[in-house]
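A brief tutorial aside. Many learners find it easier to grasp structure tokens once they have seen a single protein encoded end to end. The record that follows does exactly this for Inositol-pentakisphosphate 2-kinase. Read the sequence first, then the structure, and try to relate runs of similar tokens to stretches of the chain.
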Amino acid sequence: MKLVGKGNANIVLEDTNDNSPIKRLYRISTRYNTIVENNDYTLRNWNYIEQRIKPLLMDYLCGMELYNMTRDKLYNVQEVQTLLQSSDDLIKCIKMEDLRLPAEDGGASASKNITRYKDHYLKIYTTTSDILFELKPKWLYSVSVGYCRTCTHATMIKRNFLICPCLLVTDPAEAVERICSSSLNIYHKQLTEYFKDPSNILQCLYRLQQKWDPIRQLRHQSPIDLNTLCTAMTLRDVTIFIRSSISGQIAARIVDVDLKPKSKLEHWLATQNKLDTLPDASKVIHIKKNKPRSNLLLP
Ligand SMILES: [Zn+2]
């Protein structure tokens, strides 16, 4: 097993012996100190995804299944060695579709995949035949907030980014124009058409966020119902993979749909309060089109 991703509460592994054409990844919770606690969380998370999230995202949700991993597969994964000492149980994990672009050299270490751009909200990868966006759209729907929640939060914590993901919903032509440098121009037309299509993945997420709007709860204007609040916040913390092929095909999937711990409540309330009490000049409102920036893509 090879580590391919590490978050605050989980690791993602690739099985380097898997030669099947459809690759899978394994997501293991490291949120707690013992296997028993992590297995318990993974099971609750799995039930949450199946019962609450899947009916909302349907086919947009990345293919996944609950999987019991034997300990011997993890002997060389440094990140779980302490965890493995806590019990002899099998490790419950979520086995999911690998949405990354395939390595063009057949998987050898010197991959020809190129990272074209990278910030917190958007990563762009290309091969000779495909372009892949890895997008964290955050708060696409901010109407009830009164300002762009994503831009205002990014500005508050001094986080730089190329474009606000909301622009891909409100002004797709302008957003794609900014993203596609001259070397990516071959994808320009099909991506613009895709983001203009009302059935695209971001429009779908926008409508879901509108329906699951947490702002009244976060502002103490209505009683807090942790179950609906957690679902609303899951929908604001997903990752979207959009893959566009030179042949014109576009495929889009959503990942990172995990059950949020209820202990996050204080953090959510405090963050909303900080944002709401910022001076008006610090709140970002998308009123008019900004001028396209210079080419910020990496060479
Ligand atoms: Zn914005």
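Self-check: The radius of gyration is 20 Å. If you spotted this yourself, you are ready for the next section.
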